[in-house]
Design goal:
heterodimer; A: alpha+beta; BirA Bifunctional Protein, domain 2; nine-stranded mixed β-sheet; three-stranded antiparallel β-sheet; 10 helices; 14 strands; about 35% helix; globular; B: mainly beta; SH3 type barrels; OB fold (Dihydrolipoamide Acetyltransferase, E2P); 3 domains; six-stranded antiparallel β-sheet; five-stranded antiparallel β-sheet; 1 helix; 16 strands; flat
């Protein structure tokens, strides 16, 4: 007898495979090279709030970011990767501790370029220009909506971004009041994050308090995160050190410095990079209520 | 002591000295931000509900409940009656206090009745319970509609989704933690 949880997901897994196929086709057509980098790393990117799973003295990657940027620095100017990433303790209806990530990097580009490319990619990955998700009809025809973080706080909350950060309420307000309103009729890019919320992002020219970072939301679900990449090794080192201090203060594991990455940053061209949660994209395109419905096996089913 | 990472549906905690049960739980984490644990919970005495969001590092005391093995006897109006087989003492639990557990109560089932200051405020049923299917549409062989589940009613009146091959009269195992079909009992 076939396992019911698997036969029940036949349609979702078939569609998932087709979506992955269209994504690979999109990048090949655009002249991107598909790359693979190791999953097990001596040190992850030191994000204050992302915890890596230890693996035989090293760590499972939380993102392929560091290796992909080393490739960029070595002259691989348009690259993409579809791979597994692991994040300790992240499990819910929209989180799996092991999940599928799509990352792509483009030299001589900034985050605005990536917004346009993301619009094209997701339109190509979807079978039709309009999708139904959780009772919403969402139009994928570009251009999509854009809103700055500052504007979103003004529109959806009673606090300014600065006050929310000072009160330690930034993330909670984002989750409870802002996210549910984003991407309801068209996908929405929320952009220009406070500099303190973007460890690997370039700051905006003329607006040093703001980082060139965006997140994409569709139907209230966070799909992707992108930056104009920081290419200054000295500033990157200081931010990594600040992140390490923050991790220590939170009582979290402090990771060894990513020296080879920092050395490679000397040669990295101006570029932009983006990480997109593929399981979540499939959820939105298939109108799935839970991330469990779009993967063959959850951790609990092993 | 529980931490935020222990939060899940069905967990019972103490809040303001009263027992609460988590009725809905989800994990949220915006972008590169901090983990947030979003819960809805029900006061197990008054039945009133609360929405609360917690963060990593928050801790909770377990609800201070005493549990006693008791047997389910019968339902009367909106109360369910249970008996301690050693002392023959009987207690009544309201339908609201039972929550989802009422979906699994068949005669003579042994459950843990939860007592708070000697008052019965809920029951814990076993994780897996066998129940007989009393109504479900037959499986049409060669059905190509692609439907991979169908509704079925079990002997307690509870309705759930089951695989298409399940027939009326069959005994199935239900996972009471999520209310879903688990497998069928052969034989």
């Amino acid at each position: 007898m076939a396992e019911w949880s698997l036969s029940r997901r036949r349609r979702a897994l078939t569609e998932r495979g087709a979506i992955f196929g269209r994504i690979r086709g999109f990048f090949q057509e655009k002249g991107y090279l598909e790359v693979e980098t190791p999953f097990r790393m001596p040190t992850p990117a030191p994000e204050p709030q992302i915890d890596a799973i230890p693996a035989d003295g090293w760590f499972l990657q939380t993102s392929p970011e560091l290796c992909m940027k080393r490739l960029l620095a070595a002259g691989f100017e348009r690259i993409f990767q579809i791979c597994r990433c692991w994040r300790h303790g992240e499990r819910g209806s929209r989180h799996l501790s092991e999940f599928s990530m799509l990352e792509w990097y483009c030299a001589q580009a900034d985050y605005l370029h990536l917004m346009a490319e993301t619009e094209e990619l997701i339109r190509a990955a979807a079978a039709s220009p309009k999708i139904s998700y959780r009772g919403l009809t969402i139009d994928l025809t570009p251009p999509w909506e854009r809103i700055t973080v500052a504007e979103a706080f003004r529109r959806y909350t009673d606090l300014t971004v600065e006050r929310a950060l000072a009160a330690g309420m930034f993330d909670q307000l984002m989750v409870e009041l802002i996210e549910p309103g984003l991407g309801l009729s068209k996908p929405t890019f929320i952009h220009d994050y406070p500099a303190s919320c973007a460890a690997l992002s370039r700051l905006k020219e003329g607006e040093p308090g703001v980082a060139e970072r965006f997140e994409l939301y569709i139907g209230g679900l966070e799909i992707a995160n992108a930056f104009s990449e920081l290419t200054d090794p000295e500033e990157q080192r200081q931010r990594f050190e600040a992140a390490a201090v923050e991790r220590a203060e939170l009582g979290k594991t402090v990771y060894p410095p990513a020296e080879k990455f920092l050395a490679a940053l000397e040669h990295m061209p101006e570029s932009a990079g983006i990480a997109l949660g593929l399981d979540r994209l499939v959820m939105v395109l298939l109108d799935a209520e839970s991330i469990d419905e779009v993967v063959a096996f959850t951790t609990e089913e092993l | 002591m529980y931490t935020a990472a222990d939060l899940r549906k069905g967990l019972k905690i103490t809040l303001d000295n009263e027992p609460y049960i988590i009725t809905s739980f989800d994990f949220a984490k915006p972008g590169k931000g901090q983990a947030l644990y979003r819960t809805k919970m029900k006061n197990m005495i008054t039945g009133s509900t609360l929405d609360r969001t917690y963060r990593s590092g928050d801790t909770f005391e377990p609800a201070s409940l005493v549990d006693r093995k008791m047997q389910y006897l019968y339902k009367e109006d909106d109360h369910y009656c249970f008996m301690d087989n050693d002392s023959f003492e009987q207690v009544h639990v309201s339908e609201t206090a039972l929550g989802d557990a009422k979906n699994y109560l068949i005669d003579n089932l042994m459950v843990d009745v939860l007592l708070f200051r000697d008052q019965a405020i809920g029951v814990d049923v076993p994780n897996f319970i066998n129940l007989r299917v009393t109504q479900t549409d037959p499986w049409v062989k060669g059905d190509t509609s692609g439907s991979d589940s169908k509704p079925a009613t079990v002997e307690t009146g509870y309705v759930l989704r089951v695989p298409p091959f399940i027939e009326e009269g069959e005994l199935i195992v239900i996972d009471t933690r999520n209310g879903e079909y688990s497998t069928r009992v052969k034989g």
